Amino acid sequence: MRGPALLTAPRLSITQIRLRRISSCGSIAHASRSQSPHPLPSSSSKPGPTSGSPPDHRLLAATQDLFITHPVSPGSPLFLPHGSRIFNKLISFIRAQYALYGYEEVTTPTIYKRSLWETSGHWENYKEHMFKVTGREAEETERATIGERERTEAEGDFGLKPMNCPGHCLLFKHAAGGLSLRDLPVRYADFSPLHRNENSGSLSGLTRVRRFHQDDAHIFCRPSQISHEISSTLQFIQTVYKVFHLPPHKLMLSTRPKEGYIGSLEEWDRAEAALKASLDESGQEWAINEEGGAFYGPKIDATLTDSGGKEHQTATIQLDFQLPRRFGLNYLAPAPVAEQRGILSTDPEELKESGFVTPHYNGKWPFWLSPRQAIVIPVAMADEIVTYARHVRRGISGLPEETGRVNANGPLAMSRRTFNVDIDESAGLLSRKVRAARIKHYNYIIVVGERNLRAKTISLGSAFPRGQEQGGGEGVEKSSMDLSVEEVYQKFVELESEYA
């Protein structure tokens, strides 16, 4: 009986994908004191190409108050409240897909002893890219003999983790004693931060960092389950790419290199056959890259083409014969096969060059991911209008009405959806407030006036390209409707549920 196979599941770089530009699907509503509702123009709900070079994500971050960098922690962005909103939404999105694909979330340490990295092979092959830390054990070296000193120094060496593979192997090895083959596959997912010691001169915004989060997961399964898990990964890739409006991708199978590989020919043939079968079942076109596999196993690469015609590898599915052997994961059988896979590239340099999302969106986030989903602006600073504007803001945010007492309504239900809605009560001209909100790319700008106060409604407008469904025309048709606060809230729920 063969042992379980280890699969490294989709990895989505939270830090680096955050500033990929996503379309703005929201419209802008405007209702003044003396005029009928008149929606201001907004961007199309679907991405469209822009002219010129892609905008610099660092300028976008400054304009939208998303993150800052500081010399006291180079390569480790500090996320501001609006940037943290995107960060948390991305985690929530991937976490929801984990429930669909059967993952269990785990939390693993940021720091491990040198001995673990020696077992995994990182200390030998990846040490220059790791942050090394010295523990208290090293303080004992001065009082130790020569032999004890070498041993104590090794015990005092630690490394910040650059990836989660070793930790997940430890988790499975711990759990394996109580499992049977019928309990497989076992899938672990992890959002804990990773650190890589990039050269200081190459650090830049979010495209080259030292600290980042990625959607990192590993699957332990029987060899007979590998083909199914690969097919599931291909479906996962399509699901995520569709949500982020990425263009169609190409698939490439890279086979055993001519020399320098590990494992037997039988293992390689079996692994390549499993990958080919999964590619055939996917229904997508694919090609073979002869002898292009890694030394530890064959792989499937997904590539996207940017607006300049340059291709970028953004997803990979790899089979690894080495890691399970290093950790002794020969559960019920000889050493299993490891499959490593990722949905979007976690290589900062590749993300730096990628242009297949940025030119289309220019910071106009879709409603579900937007850090500024709506803003309420009172048309005048009269007390009754401002009070109603605050009522509107709390209602469409999904928050209970203020009672004047702290926590009078009890805790908010975890199942209650809440939205990122701000209110502008500053002094100044209404036109300037609206213009400032548009620069910040709010999906909805709701101007509340006396008419809304009397009717207890919100005038919600919509904007979309004329003939969009047929793919023609560039004009914009506008419509508006008077809705209650609860109706607007339910509309927001619908938009977020559809990843619109």
TrEMBL record:
It is found in: Mitochondrion matrix. Residues 32-54 have a biased composition (Low complexity). GO terms for biological process: threonyl-tRNA aminoacylation. Residues 81-500 form the Aminoacyl-transfer RNA synthetases class-II family profile domain. CDD domains: ThrRS_core. Gene3D superfamilies: Anticodon-binding domain, Bira Bifunctional Protein, Domain 2. InterPro entries: aa-tRNA-synt_IIb, aa-tRNA-synth_II, aa-tRNA-synth_II/BPL/LPL, Anticodon-bd, Anticodon-bd_dom_sf, Thr-tRNA-ligase_IIa, ThrRS_core. GO terms for cellular component: mitochondrial matrix. This is threonine--tRNA ligase.
